[in-house]
Amino acid sequence: MTALIQLxxxxxxxxxxxxxxxxxxxxxxxxxxxxxxxxxxRSGSGKSTLLSVLGLFDRPDHGSYTLSGDDISRLPERxxxxxxxxxxxxxxxxxxxxxxxxxxxxxxxxxxxxxxxLPRRQRRAKVMAALDEVGIAxxxxxxxxxxxxxxxxRVAIARALVRQPRILLADEPTGAxxxxxxxxxxxALSAVTDRGxxxxxxxxxxxxxxxxxRVMHLDAGVLTEQAGAPAGQGGRR
Amino acid sequence: MIRFSGRFRSAFIIxxxxxxxxxxxxxLSMVSLFLGVLAVVIVQAGAxxxxxxxxxxxxxxxxxxxxxxxxxxxxxxxxxxxxLDTVKGRQDAMALVGMQAIIGEPGVRPVNPDAxxxxxxxxxxxxxxxDAVGNCREQTAQESGPEGQAIEVRLxxxxxxxxxxxxxxxxxxxxLDFTTMPALAPSLVLNKEAAKGFTTHRVPAExxxxxxxxxxxxRFVGVVDDGDSRPRAYVRVDELSHWVPTTKLIDPSFxxxxxxxxxxxxxxxxxASKLKAVNVETYTELINSRKDQEKELAMxxxxxxxxxxxxxxxxxxxxxxxGLATVGERVEEFALRRAVGTPxxxxxxxxxxxxxxxxxxTAALAIGASVGGLKLLVTLFGDSEPFLQGLAFPWDAGVxxxxxxxxxxxxxxIVPALRAAGIPIATVMRA
Lengths: 237, 431
What we know:
The complex is a heterodimer.
Chain A: E1 5-14, E2 21-31, E3 36-40, H1 47-54, E4 62-67, E5 70-71, H2 77-87, E6 88-91, H3 103-108, H4 120-133, H5 149-161, E7 167-171, H6 179-190, E8 198-202, H7 206-210, E9 214-219, E10 222-225
Parallel strand pairs in A: 3-8, 3-9, 6-7, 7-8
Antiparallel strand pairs in A: 1-2, 1-4, 4-5, 9-10
Chain B: H1 2-21, H2 23-61, E1 68-73, H3 79-87, E2 93-104, E3 128-130, E4 136-138, H4 141-144, E5 150-158, E6 169-173, E7 187-191, H5 192-200, E8 207-209, E9 219-225, E10 232-236, H6 237-240, H7 246-249, E11 256-261, H8 267-277, E12 281-286, H9 289-329, H10 331-339, H11 344-381, H12 395-421, H13 426-430
Parallel strand pairs in B: 5-10, 7-9
Antiparallel strand pairs in B: 1-11, 1-12, 2-5, 2-8, 2-11, 3-4, 6-9, 7-10
Keywords (chain B): Cell membrane, Membrane, Transmembrane, Transmembrane helix
Family (chain B): Belongs to the ABC-4 integral membrane protein family.
Membrane topology (chain B): Multi-pass membrane protein
């Protein structure tokens, strides 16, 4: 079966300092549809950089990146933006919700991004479906300032899901939440694999990592599969 | 096209959201911009109104644009009868004959020799006297007689309603009625300066005109504003011709004779031919005051627009300052928008949309304020300032305001827009 994402020999070197520093060193990774992968590692090991490359925020210096068989290693920014909109969803540690918008408007942000136009009614239906998927449809008209951290992160997840992405990238999404709320957020994230969306989760939390299908360890830019990692509850291997 | 439409709508929606989220900042940037746009609108409106006022005065003095004026070169006793016969009863051609007239006590020196204005701005010189070949000199005190209760006016005898060519503004009373039989006591319409003189000085109703068989008893029927600073009175030619023979009345060697013509009237050719037959040359000139004034007015307008432009620049600096500060505050928002697939061009479009909407809103407010201000001005001072009567807001000032708002929006927004488009997405990853 063809991998949804295939990274081969990805290298990223941080320049502009006294001595160039290799952040990613020949990373190889295959991700299949509906798969969930946890990436763990110490701070500064390159987890976020790997996610940046995966999410087309940044380009690798060497190696190839294919998405559904197409090489996208050297994609121009305009096409990268289009792919980000159509294929990827992002969840960050900080929720990045706009305070002056309601939950529904924050979710709609991903739809009003210049990549095609949806009439208001269709937009609203998609937004409500996404909010419903994460269990907070009743908070659609609330502004972020009137929500708890868990609720805000679920709004952020709804924003990531509203375009029905094929890959969901989550960068320490539970970092700012308590354990119980973090578990609920991981539940919401894991659920997306049921409909064939791949989930790549960067986390420091071993319990959350253990719930993923595979656990990858990143150390000094080298990505290795963690031996003996249990098969998670969410996603397939 | 669909893509453009989607991006345009997205930029507009997000721009409106941005403005609503930062009402105070938007208001602050609008304040300085408002003054700038208002300056442009006021300058443009002022220039249009001044142009209109200036042209209005010129129209009174020389005639409406498109009118032809025919002057005469040479003299003949036949000139008067020829002109009167040719233009009689016509609406497309009228003759004006200018002469001096003294109204008041006989045998005295008028209070304003040579029909000078009553404010003394011409000084107090003795009346002039000219011989048959045109040599003029000041009259001696003995010749002019003692100063008495008399007023000298420029008398203009007209063959028809000349207001068709020179739109004199009514002040009081009525204009000359050409539908009635000519009266022996000629009706006179005074200009404002003459009316001022007759209000100040009580003089007997006795008028002396050079060449008249007797002194006349005039009847003042109205006052008009003809833009002339000298006292002037208008009279029907046919009423004056009871007392002054036509050959003397319309004689270029005695007074000014001018024929006003429609641009396309056949009278011009007919009259010129008839006069040529008696060895009187004619010269015709087409009035085009607007074109003549254009250069001068354009220069004036440019100077004022440059000043308004400077004020507008201050407004642009304000909007630029607020725009840059806002982008600085919204780094994470823009990075996030890029992360969810918003192209750089749309990010720039969002910022530009915000500044353009702000600029257009401000322009609308400035235009509204100008319209309101002008209406108030007309209401308060319309009665005392005739050129304000019926004055409407000039549309070109509105257009100038909208253009100023657009330019300010673009100039003030372009740098913040470029900065917003250049924000790296990794900002959200490092946050």
